[in-house]
Input
Amino acid sequence: MKALMLGWEFPPHILGGLGTASYGLTRGMSLQEDLDITFVLPKTYGDEDQSFLKIIGACNVPIVWKDVNWDHVNGMIGSQMHPNEYYHLRDNGIRYDFRRIGTNELGCVGFSGRYPDNLLEEISNYEAVASVIAHSMDFDIIHSHDWLTYPAGIFAKNITGKPLVIHVHATDFDRSRGNVNPDVYRIEKAGMDIADHIITVSNLTRQTVIEKYHQDPSKVTTVHNAVDPLPDVDSFVKHPRKDKVVTFLGRITMQKGPEYFVEVAKRVLSKTKDVRFVMAGSGDMMNQMIHLAAKSGIADRFHFTGFLKGRQVHEMLAESDVYMMPSVSEPFGISPLEAMQVGAPSIISKQSGCAEILTNAIKTDYWDIDAMADAIYAIVKYPAMYKMLREEGIAEVNNIKWEYAGQKVRDIYNRVLGII
Output
């Protein structure tokens, strides 16, 4: 079976959980011997792991025919794509007049590889690239990850007649606390309406899809995320220190509830001074949180690291005595699994998808500042509680594998394709 996957992020160049989930799921699915995955990204860099799938950069797919020689193509994109593949796409894939879209000397359109101010324009351009790929490649099923790729998935389905599965990693109801962007909602709703099946990362998200987007429950299946095993997990250690460390790691946006983390820190520090709080990440509320920490009189015990990536993430989590995720609406939330993997006890909001599968994490409502503060105080003050959550958490998370999630997705493929 051949799957065409349309995504927006992939390691090592990730901006959030979408890239981590895309990598983990495709690795888990690759363990199935008869499944070939081609994964399309807006922008590639040449350092992506292609040992278990094929990656195509939309930035290297010609949407306008250009007469260019092999050496020139190789010089421009040879580190990311073999020139012969470029010519195959150019000669077999272009069916529409995309001259209105600005292209380079190879006939390709540029992408930021991020979430720029002109994001809707990039989504539209990605859709044009998908049409070229759909005309020139052979595949059995289309799999679109998150709303940014739904228009491309719809276009590919309309061209080929192949079934479309969309993967809802989040909805705009999660990102906006209910203040939904009508353009985003329209794209999300169209993708869900046209898809042959919808995968959600939690039952929480499934209910949102059913209730807010008016989808048939029989069309929506939950496949919980997982976590990749760390081959060098023993290299991540917590160094001895007097002060305990409590960490928030993620985008500093209203969806993640960073203000509750600051309020909890204030409550804990009113009881004990031997705790430091770390807010790791970046986002549009970062300056607001810096001012809130200062206004709360805890700036000397509160630290901002900025965006962390790669090994830095696990190093920070391993140094933490407590990991806290007070998300207001979290479709899943992989970071608590990553924290537990390196031995950091986790406190998570009941409004997160991962709360559906984690037993050895403390769960509170995101707004219950007193409960979160009490949980932190207990963990940092009672070694037996810390030890129990640490050991049981490691054992639990080691059995939450992407291979299992991948098999569930394959079962969905089989149902959609009518394979018994």
In short: Residues 119-136 form the longest helix (18 residues).
